[in-house]
């Protein structure tokens, strides 16, 4: 499942970041490099988090950076994955808003986007999946988690 929605060239493993804006930029970097998104899309995600708070935290340790569907600066539907060793702090007063797993979403195709989100949610809801992703050090570890939790 994971390999079906996140291309291997869109995986990143990092030590950590001094602030959450740098983490979002890094998480989006593979999509920027491929021309799937533009900097305006990354800027929109950052501005939305500043305005609405860390809405991108979908579970403890898991962030899903995204902006509006078909938003400015998006050219394709895709997801990138980034894992950090050190937690990225979004709210220093609320450790439940820390993240180490980032799934950056870009979407132009609503049907494919919803299908990707459902598949990702189903994967993350499997008992132990998040914990195994947090232990991943490289793409091989991700594929082991994929195989372990795929139906």
UniProtKB/TrEMBL annotation:
* InterPro entries the UniProt entry points to: Ascorbate-PTS_EIIA_comp (IPR051351), PTrfase/Anion_transptr (IPR016152), PTS_EIIA_type-2_dom (IPR002178)
Q: Does the keyword Transport apply?
A: yes
Q: Locate the PTS EIIA type-2 domain: which residues?
A: 4-149
Q: Which domain of life is it from?
A: Bacteria
| Annotated Gene Ontology cellular component terms | cytoplasm
What Pfam families is this protein classified in?
A: PTS_EIIA_2 (PF00359)
Keyword line: Cytoplasm, Kinase, Phosphoprotein, Phosphotransferase system, Sugar transport, Transferase, Transport
Q: Which molecular-function annotations from GO does this UniProt entry contain?
A: kinase activity
Q: Any one Gene Ontology biological process term? A: phosphoenolpyruvate-dependent sugar phosphotransferase system
Location in the cell: Cytoplasm
Q: What does this protein do?
A: The phosphoenolpyruvate-dependent sugar phosphotransferase system (sugar PTS), a major carbohydrate active transport system, catalyzes the phosphorylation of incoming sugar substrates concomitantly with their translocation across the cell membrane. The enzyme II UlaABC PTS system is involved in ascorbate transport.
Q: Which PANTHER family match?
A: ASCORBATE-SPECIFIC PTS SYSTEM EIIA COMPONENT
This protein's name: Ascorbate-specific PTS system EIIA component
Native organism:
Holdemania filiformis
């Amino acid at each position: 499942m994971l390999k079906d929605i996140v291309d291997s060239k869109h995986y990143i493993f990092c030590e950590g970041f001094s602030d959450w804006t740098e983490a979002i930029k890094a998480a989006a970097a593979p999509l920027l490099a491929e021309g799937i998104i533009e900097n305006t899309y990354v800027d929109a995600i950052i501005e939305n988090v500043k305005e609405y708070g860390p809405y991108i935290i979908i579970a403890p340790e898991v962030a899903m950076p995204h902006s509006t569907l078909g938003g400015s600066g998006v050219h394709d539907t895709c997801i990138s994955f980034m894992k950090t060793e050190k937690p990225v702090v979004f709210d220093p007063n609320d450790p439940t808003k820390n993240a180490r797993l980032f799934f950056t979403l870009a979407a132009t195709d609503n049907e494919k986007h919803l299908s990707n989100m459902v598949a990702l949610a189903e994967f993350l809801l499997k008992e132990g999946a998040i914990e195994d992703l947090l232990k991943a050090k490289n793409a091989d570890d991700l594929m082991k988690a994929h195989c372990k939790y795929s139906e």
